[in-house]
């Protein structure tokens, strides 16, 4: 059938009601959002954002309501989609935006693709990777992996991807989302090393929409975290350690989940795997810790300072 592309959509969407099919690759995936409220009667008040791209650039795609439980787990970073009967809406201005791995890629930020169960009923088809043709011009997924030795030079809020060998993982903790509201974020702290520094990555991992991964992080696993944000507070305490925290678009992977992921082709990931092959498992296990209370950042020495 006749296809359109994202660049053409942006130029012509106001003059059309029906759109030609789209062929796109998923580059980023947000966590699943529940927006239900007691006074609103909705069967499945879910929403998820994806950043999708073709040869012309990148655009947000929103999966709504009952399509989320049906499709969310199948739509992975790197998946190629053929979309029929989708809607085009003006972009929601306050949503978070991931940092693209390819800084040259054009971003179409004024509109977004809306996938719904009706008005119109969207048809989603997943194209197996072995059937994807080079002439379609779909971009590859690119990453921004850093090593631990590079972290100290990065600015606050910089976006990056990391891979490391887990040496510590803390218990699951809760933080209240907002004061006086019985709603909590779940998170845990982890340390991971990659052989490029004596210091580990300190990772604040909030529960993403991957409970099967989040609950099974343990020492000696190979941990990949994408779309992490650098947190450094040089104003209050210049010597306070730098750490990384998850963003809305972060994905987490552990040993057993790496096969077939696009990042396995990345040069820094391959270097890390080579380093792990030179390590003694027995020696590394002696240095690992699991569980316990991990106060971070460390509280001040006195109540007066606190």
Automatic annotation (TrEMBL):
This is RADX protein. The lineage of its organism: Eukaryota, Metazoa, Chordata, Craniata, Vertebrata. GO terms for molecular function: single-stranded DNA binding. Signal peptide: none annotated. InterPro entries: NA-bd_OB-fold (IPR012340), RADX (IPR040893). It comes from Climacteris rufus.
């Amino acid at each position: 059938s006749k296809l359109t592309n994202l660049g053409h959509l942006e130029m012509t969407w106001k003059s059309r009601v029906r759109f030609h099919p789209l062929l796109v690759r998923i580059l980023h995936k947000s966590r699943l959002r529940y927006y239900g409220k007691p006074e609103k009667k909705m069967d499945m008040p879910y929403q998820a954002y994806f950043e999708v791209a073709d040869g012309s650039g990148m655009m947000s795609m929103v999966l709504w309501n009952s399509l989320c439980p049906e499709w969310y787990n199948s739509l992975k970073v790197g998946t190629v989609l053929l979309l029929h009967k989708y809607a085009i809406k003006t972009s929601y201005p306050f949503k978070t935006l991931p940092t693209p791995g390819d800084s040259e890629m054009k971003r179409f930020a004024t509109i977004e693709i809306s996938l719904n169960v009706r008005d119109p009923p969207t048809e989603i088809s997943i194209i197996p990777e072995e059937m994807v043709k080079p002439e379609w011009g779909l971009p590859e997924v690119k990453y921004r992996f850093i090593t631990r030795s590079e972290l100290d030079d990065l600015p606050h809020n910089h976006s990056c991807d990391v891979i490391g060998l887990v040496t510590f993982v803390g218990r699951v903790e809760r933080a209240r989302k907002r004061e006086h509201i019985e709603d909590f974020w779940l998170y845990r702290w982890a340390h991971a090393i990659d052989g490029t520094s004596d210091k580990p990555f300190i990772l604040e991992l909030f529960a993403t929409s991957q409970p099967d991964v989040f609950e099974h992080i343990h020492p000696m696993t190979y941990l990949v975290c994408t779309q992490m944000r650098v947190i450094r507070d040089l104003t209050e305490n210049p010597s306070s350690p730098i750490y990384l925290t998850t963003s809305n678009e972060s994905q987490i992977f552990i040993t057993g989940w790496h096969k077939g992921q696009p990042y396995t082709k990345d040069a820094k990931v391959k270097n890390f795997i080579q380093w792990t092959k030179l390590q003694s498992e027995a020696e590394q296990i002696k240095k690992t810790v699991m569980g316990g209370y991990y106060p971070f950042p460390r509280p001040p020495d006195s109540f007066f300072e606190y």
